[in-house]
Write a structure and sequence with these properties.
Layout (H helix, E strand, L loop, with lengths): L1 H63 L39 H24 L1
Helix pairs in contact: 1-2
Length: about 130
């Protein structure tokens, strides 16, 4: 009787030890690793949000301050030659509206929108 109780207790101790070890290696360690990776990613995302907000503020400030760069005059980079290939007629290009073409009210409105987006990014960074 005594030997069967002893064997039972040894089995109970070994089984418990193996069960706890299995839980540790199969559940706890992988979960800890995933939590660590998520925290690292969260840090990267916070840095990206801060950088994006700062960039938006800089662009908004340059829009308000009329410090947008001047357009490069045509022909200053590579002088134009009057030579065109035969059989090809140059097509007029559609001009696009640039930052320098914007009216002052448009620039202010655009700068306000950029500032509002920067504030939203800051709020998202703080909330997380």
């Amino acid at each position: 009787m005594r030997s069967s109780i002893t064997i039972f207790l040894i089995g109970l101790v070994l089984g418990s030890t193996l069960g706890i070890g299995g839980l540790w290696t199969q559940v706890v360690q992988p979960a800890y690793q995933q939590i660590k990776e998520l925290k690292d990613e969260q840090g990267v995302m916070k840095d990206a949000l801060a950088e994006a907000g700062q960039t938006l503020r800089e662009v908004a400030g340059s829009l308000r301050g009329d410090s947008a760069p001047e357009p490069i005059p045509a022909g200053s980079i590579a002088p134009r030659s009057g030579v065109a290939p035969e059989g090809i007629t140059p097509q007029p290009r559609e001009t696009t509206r640039t930052v320098t073409d914007l009216q002052a009210t448009d620039r202010r409105a655009l700068a306000e929108k950029l500032d509002a987006l920067a504030v939203k990014l800051d709020a998202a960074k703080i909330a997380k």
